[in-house]
Amino acid sequence: MKPFLLLATRAEDVPADEEYALFLRYTGLDEQHLVRVRMEAGPLGAVDLDEYSGIFVGGGPFNASDPEEKKSAVQHRVEAEFAALLDEVVARDFPFLGACYGVGTVGTHLGALIDGTYREPISVVEVTRTEAGAADPLLAELPDVFPAFVGHKEAITVLPPAATLLARGEGCPVQMFRVGENVYATQFHPECDVEGISTRIREYAGHGYFAEGELQLTLDAVRRLPVTHTGSILRAFAERYAR
């Protein structure tokens, strides 16, 4: 089997390594078949899509809607690399699943309006499948309404016609979409469990996801509902596209 590629952008080793471990667990892949590249650590270089079964993208610290002058040199490089990669991915309808930062990358590629209108604090929210979502193979095992972990400073306000809305939320209208038949992006985090998101809460305290003094409130917020279904999205993707 050709491996899958996981593109990561977290600079902090503890949450970065835990994210990789979570992707391994929920996809059911081993390290030989899920190759990780930490894009923040250096240039991505050429990616030969024919060498891979598909691509995953993890969450990350970058916001597509940040003013250009406030973006670091690393963010500018990573965004340019994603833009070039997605030109080929979308043109070929190559299997791609971006979790959280996938909305920023794929959404930007489509020309979607991305801003802070529908930002969500770190918490558990209820996500609802659309009719198209209920018919999509990645969501087949999920109920019509399911809890999911969120925590983002930006979101898609207007989804372009080229994309198909698969899931929505009360506080964020675009929680998952598909482009073509094989390119996916989620706003929620299908790769997270409560321990993993708690690690991120502690690691990114002071990064603007919650106010000073709200650490314990945020840790409690991700325990308000059990999240048990979203990991199946990653396994369904891996099983569907393994080749």
TrEMBL record:
InterPro entries: ChyE-like (IPR044992), Class_I_gatase-like (IPR029062), GATASE (IPR017926). Pfam families: GATase. Residues 49-192 form the Glutamine amidotransferase domain. Gene3D superfamilies: 3.40.50.880. CDD domains: GATase1_1. PROSITE patterns: GATASE_TYPE_1. This is Glutamine amidotransferase.
